[in-house]
Automatic annotation (TrEMBL):
Domain (Glycosyl hydrolase family 31 C-terminal): residue spans on this chain: 585-670
InterPro entries reported for this sequence: Gal_mutarotase_sf_dom, GH, Glyco_hydro_31_C, Glyco_hydro_31_N_dom, Glyco_hydro_31_TIM, Glyco_hydro_b, Glycosyl_Hydrolase_31
Name the record gives this protein: TIM-barrel domain-containing protein
Residues in Glycoside hydrolase family 31 TIM barrel domain copies: 238-575
Family assignment from sequence similarity: Belongs to the glycosyl hydrolase 31 family.
Source lineage: Bacteria, Bacillati, Actinomycetota, Actinomycetes, Kitasatosporales
Length: 677
């Protein structure tokens, strides 16, 4: 029996040459792997996994002289004492090599692979000082493997094999380090460290620029099973409130209380559904005061009462940045509630503020990883928003929006920026979640521009940030949204029509808007937003052109109105999918392969999706297109929801798509109220 292997009952540990490697059961069919180059494992590092493992059977551990195995349901992990083909640790650098196997037949799911027979090994720690290392974790590549998830990105790929993905938060680029493979496993890189993942043909490599130990979680199963295990391990989303499944109206920006109210009144006068309307940035007195400017919003409580009578929720924009002219700035500075720096002041970005004229302020950001910082900000939100009846919050610029984004100079309460920087948006959403629950509220929804693993448990929705306003951007969004769904975040939306520009009087843009609106009606959240018109100077007085459904001309208006009513008819079905997401982790928006993993073509269909199990949605994403090809997955029969024409699955068909119609197909005789009764 090798002296390097140790049976801990719930875990298998290997120790040699100072390194400790532990594999432990972590939920059904799942394991957690941690490794440190020296000393004991650290138990208190921030990550995505819940504090304790999901319930599961005790693993079976077997030790021998040269290897040991841990079996946990469908996954088996083998630790080999030496590298493949090596007889002694002196001949190779990868002693303690891991292989993940399917328990059923012993075939390989995932395996460590060293970069070289001598050095470096599959796990590489390069010291950066004070106990921190640049960490690399390498795995073997498999030809033809398809890889999904990893959050939200604008590269336009659904299958991300071959990509290099930065593990860092940026506007429209969201890091959620959950990787889902068509080989039957999911891997969560359980570290908020800044780094990257390289999905190369020669191998997969995870990199943390500066961290103290390796920590990741692997689960076996098809994608739906992976997402279920992931929800068990990182937290389930709550059930989306009924009102949030309706239509959200927004633009950059409504400047006054009366302007916003008049838009809500007009929706109701026209008999159009409206559930949420948004007060965007610069509604505040100063950045970081988290309250309405009384010159523009004189009676927020009365505004909320009128909106309530109309059946409309008010959502307000909440930024994490604090101007030096804010009444809260010095108190927060004195209490150490800002993200600190290794060198220099706590200013992290320049931003315009009221009263500064043509100048910008050097703003700081509150530290969302600090419980005291979260409590301070929530106290202001409670007094200035919640006490007026406002219960929906738009957490903008929550990456946070640093200029420059130099995490190496930052120090959070949770640790150095390079080690914990990706954690911020999740903890910012936690501020709203914990504050609302402490205030006696039971429904929590925040709309976030960034996210991280585990944010779903805090009622955090994600939208796709500041994106373009053309068909190319729409095509990218479809793939981005599906990868978000495969990253364990079930609540997602885009700015319908895109964000940066768009002229409501331009016929070409009107077509983009109509096609995007049709797509948006089948997204988990249905939200119209954007900064219409030519680019403007960023300042408190700015506002874009109109962005209501009646803003796009006589041809577009009845089409847009029809999809508002269609979404209303589908709300019971949408809510059914939201309950499924909360219970099982399976998202409402699904790539075709999630329901049809046995159909090879379903794994490559990246321009259509399923809303729930029964409705296939095929957006039109080309200018002037009035038809399109659609792959109908094998294993079901399909019916055109508009015409009643039947199709056998396993074929690609060409269907009509006039401007007023997005192709929709019903599965196996499902009956949904697509057409008006």
């Amino acid at each position: 029996m090798s002296q390097h292997f140790h049976d801990l009952g719930h875990a298998l540990e290997w120790r040699a040459k100072g390194e400790t490697l532990r594999v432990e059961a972590w939920g059904p069919d799942s394991v957690r792997v941690r490794a440190t180059p020296g000393g004991p494992l650290l138990e208190d590092l921030p990550g995505a996994l819940l504090e304790s493992a999901p319930a599961g059977a005790k693993p079976v551990i077997e030790l021998s002289e040269h290897s040991a195995t841990l079996v946990n349901g469908a996954i088996t992990v083998r630790i080999d004492a030496f590298s493949e083909g090596k007889l002694t640790p002196e001949l190779g650098a990868t002693a303690g090599q891991l292989t993940f196997l399917r328990t059923e037949d012993g075939s390989e799911l995932l395996a460590e692979e060293p970069a070289h027979f001598w050095w470096p090994g599959a796990r590489l720690y390069t010291a950066t000082g004070n106990g921190y290392h640049r960490i690399e974790q390498r795995f073997r590549a498999h030809t033809g493997e398809k890889l999904f998830g990893l959050g939200q990105h604008t590269h336009g790929m659904l299958d991300q094999k071959g990509a290099v993905i930065d593990l860092v938060q940026r506007n429209a680029e969201v890091t959620v380090p959950l990787l889902v493979s068509d080989r039957g496993y999911g891997l969560l890189w359980n570290s908020p460290a800044i780094g990257r993942v390289e999905l190369a043909e020669t191998g997969t490599r995870w990199v943390a620029d500066s961290a103290r130990q390796i920590d990741y979680w692997v689960t076996a199963g098809q994608p739906a099973e992976v997402l279920g295990h992931y929800a068990d391990a990182t937290g389930h989303t709550p059930v989306l409130p009924e009102w949030a499944a309706g239509f959200w109206q927004c633009k950059l920006r409504y400047r006054t209380q009366e302007e916003l109210l008049e838009v809500a009144r007009e929706y109701k006068r026209r008999g159009l559904p409206l559930d949420v309307i948004v007060s965007d940035f610069f509604h505040w007195t100063h950045l970081g005061e988290w309250k309405f400017d009384p010159a523009e919003w004189p009676d927020p409580a009365a505004m909320v009462r009128e909106l309530d009578e109309l059946g409309v929720k008010l959502m307000v924009s909440v930024w994490p940045s604090v101007s030096p002219v804010s009444e809260n700035y010095h108190a927060m500075l004195d209490q150490g509630l800002f993200i600190n720096t290794e060198y220099g002041p706590v200013a992290h970005a320049d931003w315009p503020d009221k009263g500064l004229g043509a100048y910008s302020a050097q703003v700081a950001f509150y530290d969302a990883t600090n419980p005291a910082g979260r409590a301070f900000v929530w106290d202001r939100i409670r007094k200035n928003y919640l006490d007026h009846g406002i219960k929906v919050f738009w957490l903008d610029a929550c990456e946070p929006e640093l200029k420059p984004n130099f995490q190496g100079n930052l120090r959070y309460s949770a640790g150095p920026g390079l080690e914990v920087g990706n954690l911020y948006p999740r903890e910012n959403a936690r501020m709203i979640h914990d504050g609302m629950l402490a205030s006696g509220e039971t429904e929590v929804v925040s709309l976030n521009r960034s996210s991280w693993a585990g944010a779903q448990r805090y009622g955090a929705a994600l939208w796709s940030g500041d994106i373009g306003t053309d068909f190319a951007s729409l095509r990218t969004q479809i793939k981005a949204g599906l990868n978000v769904a495969l990253s364990g975040i079930p609540w997602w939306t885009t700015d319908i029509g895109g964000f940066h520009g768009g002229d409501p009087d331009d016929p070409a843009y009107r077509e983009v808007l109509v096609r995007w609106f049709q797509y948006g009606a089948f997204c988990p959240l249905f939200r119209l937003h954007g900064f219409r018109g030519a680019e403007q100077k960023l300042e408190p007085a700015m506002t874009g052109l109109p962005n209501e459904v009646w803003s796009y001309g006589a041809e577009a208006y009845p089409i847009l109105a029809s999809y508002l009513h269609l979404r209303e008819r589908l709300r019971p079905y949408v809510m059914e999918q939201m309950r499924t997401a909360a219970e099982t982790g399976v998202p409402p928006m699904r790539p075709l392969f999630l329901e049809f993993p046995e159909d090879p073509d379903a794994w490559t269909a990246d321009d259509s999706f399923l809303l729930g199990p029964d409705l296939l949605v095929a957006p039109v994403t080309e200018a002037g297109a009035r038809s399109r090809e659609v792959h109908l997955p094998a294993g079901a029969d399909w019916t055109c929801a508009w015409t009643g024409t039947g199709y056998r699955g396993g074929a690609t068909v060409t269907v009509d798509a006039p401007l007023e119609r997005i192709p929709l197909f019903l599965r196996d005789g499902a009956r949904l109220p697509i057409a008006e009764a």
